Amino acid sequence: MCCPNVIEKVRQRISRRDLLKSTGAAAAGVLAAGCKTTAKAAPATEPVSFTRVVDLSHTLHPDFPAWFVPGEEKTFGTKTFLPPAIVEVERVFKYEEIKINLSKVSYWEHVGTHMDAPNHFSEGSSVEKIPAEDLVLPLAVIDIKARAARDPLALVTLEDVKAWESKHGRIPERACLAMNSGWAAHVNTPKFKSPNADGAHQQPAFHIDAIEFIMEERNVVSIAVDTFSFDNLHSPEYDVHNAWLGDERWGIEVVNNLDDVPAAGATVVVGQPKIQGGTGGPNRVMALV
Amino acid sequence: MCCPNVIEKVRQRISRRDLLKSTGAAAAGVLAAGCKTTAKAAPATEPVSFTRVVDLSHTLHPDFPAWFVPGEEKTFGTKTFLPPAIVEVERVFKYEEIKINLSKVSYWEHVGTHMDAPNHFSEGSSVEKIPAEDLVLPLAVIDIKARAARDPLALVTLEDVKAWESKHGRIPERACLAMNSGWAAHVNTPKFKSPNADGAHQQPAFHIDAIEFIMEERNVVSIAVDTFSFDNLHSPEYDVHNAWLGDERWGIEVVNNLDDVPAAGATVVVGQPKIQGGTGGPNRVMALV
């Protein structure tokens, strides 16, 4: 089902671009497509080839850094929450007793390398609705490591996107656009959260201008970051989350090993468990190179 | 780390095959490789190509069938367990309240389309130890649908493996060997468990002879079934689980849509979340065709 605000947003964008004036049929098609995914459908494709696999997921463990601290109250709006452990793996069956091991696993969804589904910041689709063909995408990696090393609030800007295109050509159709800020190397160190004087987390993220450009002018299915948020203190109202996820799109956070893939030419595979109603959650992301 | 019983098993197998007599260096290599995975390492590969993606995972929901019934006691050896819900997705943050949705997810690991890691039936590796390059494999599918339609305890036999090879050539190096019993079509019906007069589940599975053949004579990394167990009532002591997982190997259960992939030539991608210490768990399996 397509929620009214998604339809309205797509309608507004089409209107803004005056698409209706020039290409009424195409615009109507985009509007209809918005109910499943805002990015355009897959065209008949050329074969994709690869010779090696790169692991883009971190191992999730109880000390893995997140946007919350277990047991430390977190307030959103008028609500205060008490976050649980990052992940609990409680061994229920024990090999030493019955020759079988089995654990009960539990977590708040947005920990480790994970997806944000549209419904994390909207009334849009939950995670199991994302079709498999949308989980295998050309990967475009924008490297802002040098700037991020100087500024933990560095942003992927519209200029970065255009510079990438100057070097590698137009962002491929139905791409995943990833930020490589070098943050994956800090994942088990205090640098990953880089708190400021007030204790607020600092980490690189996307600039809303870059996001609006790829929403309006390119056909990008997913965004990805090697930090734990698409937004940082430059967008305290979660502009990127609201714009991107609110437009029936999704993305991946806390990605690993982007240094091991080329800026252009790899294929990302997002191994997202299909848990009904989920708003995202831990997954296995790999690159085919 | 390689546990002693894995080293010993690999040593026994090498001894049994008299590999040490003829190819000492190669045998020593296999022994060393046993610490990571029993299957042989990836050779320099030819490029793999694909043009489409097939979803091989089911959606996991609270009514999904499993080898246990929530709230109904289950006994293994001297221990009795009270299984919880198949999966719990408890919405903690609510969009209607704070413009963010987020859920707490919990499950016993072996539900839905999922992996059995070596440590599910051994003291071997947990799920996060399986390297990404082992999660992308040539897929060989053995179709026993006709036999399974007549007999819910049908088995993939050694003869089935040999018949597959007669038609498609030798099982590819580092393959995933899958059983297509047609059971995926029954997943939300009573037929999936097909209880006998005593209430015991009936479902197709692998014959231990087929498993021993692919362990001894072929280089197979993973097995896969479209039912919820590699074993059935023909092997009540879990012969296949013990032999395969106990040999530092892994597999996938409750796979979907095997009718939509060719018997030979596809590539399986096992999107397995890297949860430290896990014995397997829900994942996203896809085929690249």
Written account of the structure:
Two copies of one chain form a homodimer. In chain A, strand 3 (74-76) and strand 4 form a beta hairpin. In chain A, the strands form four sheets. In chain A, strands 2-16-14-8-10-12-13-7-15 form a nine-stranded mixed sheet. A two-stranded antiparallel sheet of chain A has the order 3-4. Chain A has helices at residues 4-16, 19-22, 24-33, 95-98, 145-150, 158-168, 208-217, 239-245; strands at 48-50, 53-55, 74-76, 79-81, 88-93, 102-108, 114-116, 136-143, 155-156, 175-180, 205-206, 220-225, 250-253, 266-271, 280-282, 284-288. Chain A is globular, with a radius of gyration of 19 Å. The first copy, chain A, starts with a helix and ends with a strand. The longest helix of chain A has 13 residues, at 4-16. Chain A has eight helices and 16 strands. Chain A folds into three domains: 1-35; 39-61 and 109-288, Glucose Oxidase, domain 1 (3-Layer(bba) Sandwich), CATH 3.50.30; 74-106, no CATH class. In chain A, helix 7 (208-217) packs parallel to helix 8. In chain A, 22% of the residues lie in helices and 24% in strands. With 289 residues, the first copy, chain A, is α/β, with parallel strands linked by helices. At the A-B interface, strand 1, strand 2, strand 5, helix 4 and strand 6 of A face strand 1, strand 2, strand 5, helix 4 and strand 6 of B. Strand 1 (48-50) of chain A pairs antiparallel with strand 1 of chain B.
